[in-house]
Design a protein that fits this description.
Elements (H helix, E strand, L loop, with lengths): L7 E6 L6 H11 L4 E7 L10 H12 L5 E6 L3 H7 L4 E6 L2 H17 L4 E6 L9 H9 L10 H10 L4 H4 L5
Parallel strand pairs: 1-2, 1-4, 2-3, 4-5
């Protein structure tokens, strides 16, 4: 069954780094909307593994074959960003009930701030419900296998960020 919505949607996050979970949401949303803008947030109160230019570049690399998807960075409230790009929908992904509680609150605040922009929740594919950027970074730090979580080019960038330390390479059988 195929569904189609019209208009422009924003799917926002830090994408630090982009994961297969993010890509699944982007591909599915790109089939629902005329235009999908990936908003990459810059929050000065947060610390990121990758700088904004790298995060934008990584997402652009992953979406290059999806014609109706583009990337923009933003530093303001998501609802204000959505208005500035003439989006009528903010798309949010839900992995678990804990996501719902947080996203529901944010959605209500956004509705209060601008009733012309709807929040739409898409359920994560069950194979991706355990994937988060934080988990991916921890796996990368300990040199775990990233094949199920991020595209190969992203895995390489993560390995560059977390080279083997002396503790990880020393032989404990001395």
């Amino acid at each position: 069954m195929s569904y189609s919505l019209s208009g422009r949607a924003v799917y926002a996050g830090s994408f630090d780094p982009i994961t297969y979970g993010h890509m699944d949401m982007i591909k599915r949303a790109s089939r629902l909307f005329d235009d999908l803008i990936i908003g990459i947030g810059e929050n000065p109160k947060k610390s990121y593994l990758f700088d904004i230019e790298t995060r934008v570049s990584m997402v652009e690399e992953q979406i290059q074959n999806i014609s109706n998807v583009s990337v923009q960075r933003f530093q303001n409230l998501l609802i204000d960003f959505a208005k500035s790009v003439d989006a009528n929908v903010i798309l949010r992904g839900l992995r678990a009930s804990t996501d719902f509680d947080y996203e529901f609150q944010i959605g209500l605040v956004n509705m209060n701030m601008n009733r012309n922009i709807e929040t739409l929740f898409l359920l994560a594919d069950p194979k991706n419900i355990f994937i988060s950027s934080s988990t991916v970074k921890e796996i990368a730090y300990f040199r775990g296998n990233l094949d199920s979580y991020v595209p190969p080019s992203i895995a390489e960038r993560l390995r560059e960020k977390f080279p083997l330390s002396e503790d990880q390479t020393s032989d404990s059988s001395d």
